[in-house]
Amino acid sequence: xxxxxxxxxxxxxxxxxxxxxxxxxxxxxxxxxxxxxxxxxxxxxxxxxxxxxxxxxxxxxxxxxxxxxxxxxxxxxxxxxxxxxxxxxxxxxxxxxxxxxxxxxxxxxxxxxxxxxxxxxxxxxxxxxxxxxxxxxxxxxxxxxxxxxxxxxxxxxxxxxxxxxxxxxxxxxxxxxxxxxxxxxxxxxxxxxxxxxxxxxxxxxxxxxxxxxxxxxxxxxxxxxxxxxxxxxxxxxxxxxxxxxxxxxxxxxxxxxxxxxxxxxxxxxxxxxxxxxxxxxxxxxxxxxx
Length: 290
What we know:
Layout: E1 6-12, H1 16-27, E2 34-41, H2 47-52, E3 59-63, H3 68-83, E4 88-93, E5 96-98, H4 103-114, E6 118-125, H5 141-159, H6 163-166, E7 185-186, E8 194-198, H7 199-204, H8 218-229, E9 233-243, H9 247-253, H10 257-283
Parallel strand pairs: 1-2, 1-4, 2-3, 6-9
Antiparallel strand pairs: 4-8, 5-9, 6-8, 7-9
Helix pairs in contact: 5-10, 8-10
């Protein structure tokens, strides 16, 4: 099988146990017409040697540095495009597991109905909540600026060691109708932990993810691109994956909340500033992000 219909692209960084669980969840299903590409994103640790043992059954792309989420995934997608040129690219975090052996036919069925650019599956988090559609995506310039100010305040308080004193009770609720879990939805923002790119999307964009981000904000860039270029984003409950969420970050920071929060806020601020700049340049008729 030289030209599979589907290629899984998995971004790995240090957390080898989750990466192997992700790989094995796919391999155990014996999914026909598919391949696996793992991007070893500059871990520079023993996990690199572990992945080398899988080279007979999967493709592994070795990056010399940690390029972050967007550029790291782009490396894997473009490798898959050059080697396999599939119909679909299923880009998943390494803490995702797959349980559906009929996933290729299900994706094809949905594509034949909707001709999507990007498809989002039902993503079940550890707490049992479906993370798609992702209504937490910031959609307007006003929303982005308000969230930027909030992130800057949080980052400052955290740096000063005062965040735990001033923080309010965290709300994890989001506006969601019950039918969102059961219906195909068109034009909605999608969660970045599991995205299915169609061939036409990958052929249209030299860089499937905007590389202005290192980590965080990728979903905002994608949704902005969707609105700007009139792309077809579709959510389907017919494909289900499971997501541990933040497993790699927790592993790196050993569950240190202060260090982790500093990393998250700092990188989120950088990403949103880049998105604001892109929107300004595009509004002035300047060069797009490709």
